[in-house]
Design goal:
With about 525 residues, this protein is of the alpha/beta class. It has 15 helices and 25 strands. The strands form 6 sheets. Strands 2-1-10-9-11-12-13-14-15 form a 9-stranded mixed beta sheet, sandwiched between helices. β13 and β14 (about 310-315) form a beta hairpin. α8 packs across α9 (about 255-270).
């Protein structure tokens, strides 16, 4: 893919990237939000006005500045302006509780809040509850200042390589929010990987499903000279498709949980997808057969990416891979971004030695995308000679493609080799009486790994958990004492799309069983 923006300049600070992102050759529309369209000049003027206000109110280099609001222009402008002032943007998720906001303010050391009109009461209540005193700068949805102090114009802050760029939140696999501080290097890496995933497409339009805490995504869109279109409707495939048609979208990140339904709408022909040129999705856990089916339905390029907040985007499964229809290739997470300096190895679970092709172990990474610390933690992540454990397990094939099998903590030794929760879950779901199921591998205090399976039964079906556990242990090649089966009326799921299984809740129940405070069967 063309990376012309980075052919001559290999390092850019976040301030330089913001300025380059705003330096469109013409004063055209560069972003479309619920509050309206923004031209290049208007966007730059509102970023400068908020930057000046921030500096005039006391924001100094590396000040943490929290921001909150609906997915509108105010969020893009807040992130850009905070960066231009030398501050570090800290997102307060719109749907989170006031307690969660206060925890983030505390752990990140935020000393200012940029708040969209209508959120000031919640911010004030949050501060009152925790005894916090933070200056609040209020902005309208379109990013204009509310009651500005009339600060004097100032200059952009000149970053240094060791400066922080932004705070990014991740819930990871536990469901517990974590705040990571991106350095200038990490921010540049994320922007570079996004540019490579979407390619440079001057004159295109990019549909985004999120703005808060992803300045790198906003920057990469404007740097490739695509109009940024904020998606703010309910998250359904039909609404998403109509937005693509209405705004003539060329590139989009499609959440995996609506990708299959979107592909079905594609072949039905009722919506005009002719403008759409590339769909990107995070789908390393998606079955190869499902990727194959989707690739056959849509008439545009597909790109899958794999990575995590702690280590950056690591690998990419490109358009040619999807067009091949090869299920062996589609089962992979693709090849690493080696041209951006990313290296992946697979290490033995016990010895830490690098393994050869085909051997399953811990997925280790080194490169510029590695983030070393969770904000509020007492120590850096464990990094060995620059290598960081992604906490995933998998293997590399002879061609360097990465295959992710699951979380390393989900791996256990079975009769026929290493097993993962997802493998056991497949065995559970193959039972005729089971309509839905979830499996976790949880270690007890002695380090022994137990298999916990929660199942919903099909209408009119019945099974004995003890007998089911015995059969499951036999299939896995592990001791019966390590398998626990619970029948539920309904498996608990998270309250918002994609309505994933609430694994944090289920893990708590598993630990309660191991601690002897709860029965293992129902």
């Amino acid at each position: 893919m063309d990376m012309s923006y980075y052919d001559s300049v290999r390092d850019r600070s976040v301030v330089q990237m913001v300025r380059d992102a705003l330096a469109w050759p013409d004063n055209d529309v560069v972003a479309i939000f619920p509050s309206g369209e923004l031209t290049r000049d208007v966007l730059a003027q509102r970023c400068d006005a908020l930057r000046d206000e921030l500096v005039g109110r006391g924001v100094r280099p590396q000040s943490r500045v929290a921001y909150v609001g609906n997915p509108d222009a105010c969020i893009m402008i807040a992130q850009f302006a905070i960066a231009l002032a030398g501050g570090v943007p800290v997102p307060l998720p719109e749907r989170s509780s006031q307690d969660a906001w206060a925890d983030l303010v505390s752990v990140t050391g935020a000393s200012f809040v940029v708040c969209e009109t209508g959120r000031r009461d919640r911010v004030a209540s949050m501060m009152e509850d925790r005894g916090l005193v933070l200056p609040v700068i209020e902005v309208a949805p379109d990013g204009t200042l509310v009651s500005p102090l009339g600060a004097q114009p100032c200059s952009d802050y000149e970053c240094t390589p060791s400066d922080l760029a932004e705070v990014v939140l991740s819930s990871g696999s536990t469901g517990t929010p974590k705040a990571f501080a991106f350095t200038q290097d990490v921010e540049y890496y994320f922007v570079s990987t996004w540019l490579q995933i979407y390619g440079e497409r001057e004159g295109g339009r990019f549909l985004s499903v999120g703005l808060s805490g992803c300045m790198h995504s906003l920057l990469s869109c404007l740097l490739r000279r695509e109009v940024f279109v904020a998606y703010a409707a309910p998250m359904t495939a039909a609404d998403f498709a109509r937005t693509i048609e209405r705004h003539r979208i060329t590139d989009a990140f499609v959440p995996p949980f609506i990708l299959d339904d979107l592909a079905d709408l594609y072949i039905e022909g009722d919506i005009d997808f002719s403008s759409l040129q590339r769909i990107a999705y995070a789908g390393q856990a998606m079955p190869a057969s499902e990727k194959q089916a989707i690739a056959q339905k849509v008439d545009c390029e597909l790109v899958q990416f794999y990575g995590n907040t702690e280590s950056g985007l690591l690998a990419c499964l490109g358009p040619d891979d999807h067009r091949s229809g090869d299920v062996g290739i589609l089962a992979s997470a693709g090849v690493p971004f080696s041209n951006l300096g990313t290296c992946i190895q697979v290490w033995d679970f016990n010895t830490g030695e690098p393994l050869g092709a085909g051997a399953i172990g811990r997925v280790m990474v080194r490169g510029r995308g590695v983030t070393r610390r969770i904000m509020g933690a007492d120590a850096d992540f464990m990094v060995v000679d620059g290598w960081r454990d992604t906490e995933d397990a998998g293997y590399l094939d002879e061609s360097g493609r990465l295959y992710v099998k699951g979380r390393a903590c989900d791996a256990l030794a079975g009769r026929d080799g290493v097993l993962f929760a997802i493998d056991i879950e497949g065995s559970v779901l193959s039972h005729s009486a089971v309509s839905a199921g979830s499996v976790q591998v949880v270690a007890d205090a002695a380090g022994a790994k137990h298999v916990f399976a929660w199942v919903e039964l099909a209408s009119g079906e019945n099974l004995q958990p003890e007998l089911f556990a015995i059969g499951l242990a036999r299939d896995c090649g592990i001791s019966e004492s390590l398998v626990h089966v619970t029948v539920l009326d309904e498996i608990p799921r998270l309250p918002r799309p994609p309505y994933k299984v609430d694994k944090s809740l289920l893990k708590g129940e598993a630990l309660a069983v191991l601690n002897g405070t709860m029965s293992a069967t129902a």
